Amino acid sequence: MSPSQSDASGYGASPALVGTLSFIIWLGLTYSPGVSLRAYLQEAAIGLIISIGIGIISVRYMRVEEPSKRMGAKGVVHLFAYFLTLVVAIIKANLQMARIVISPRLPIRPGIVRIKTSLKSSTGKLFLSNSITLTPGTLTLNVMGDEMYIHWVYVKEGTREERGKEIKGAFERHLKEVFG
Questions:
Q1: Residue 85 in contact with residue 170, Cβ under 8 Å?
Q2: 99 conformational bin, left if phi > 0, alpha if psi -120 to 50, beta if neither
Q3: Is the pLDDT of residue 28 over 60?
Q4: Cα 57 to the chain's mean position, in Å?
Q5: Which residue ranges make up each domain of the chain?
Q6: What are the φ/ψ torsions at residue 139 (nearest 5 degrees)?
């Protein structure tokens, strides 16, 4: 099948693929060396049933935004880099928030910052806004077109573009490669 074609379901993903990935994740999350084989097989059976259900439901009701644009190797690399960037950003922001909370002066400068995004797809904007919200000290309040309104615990001096670059970090660059 060429990248511009959708599979038989017309949604860009197959229930078998989604179910299989869900089942692999289930097995990885439920495995425990101390559990008997019988108990583990019972958990695996339950996971298989749930994974099949997830595969059927997700493919039927969750449409891929642009099935003609499937993710290639470059997109997978950027998606992986995005998740690493997210984890690092969350850890750094947690340390900064801990420093703010522990400090007797409580050094905060709260405010709402309007930033522009170059992301075109709604899925990319969703990922970006959720990434910003997951990072402690920031909260996405609203997304309107190519603008996002972010509550920030410590608004730094600078232009709108500079503050936007700091909030978006490398998230936007990686998401643009994945979602456009």
A1: yes
A2: alpha
A3: yes
A4: 20
A5: 1-70, 77-179
A6: -150, 125
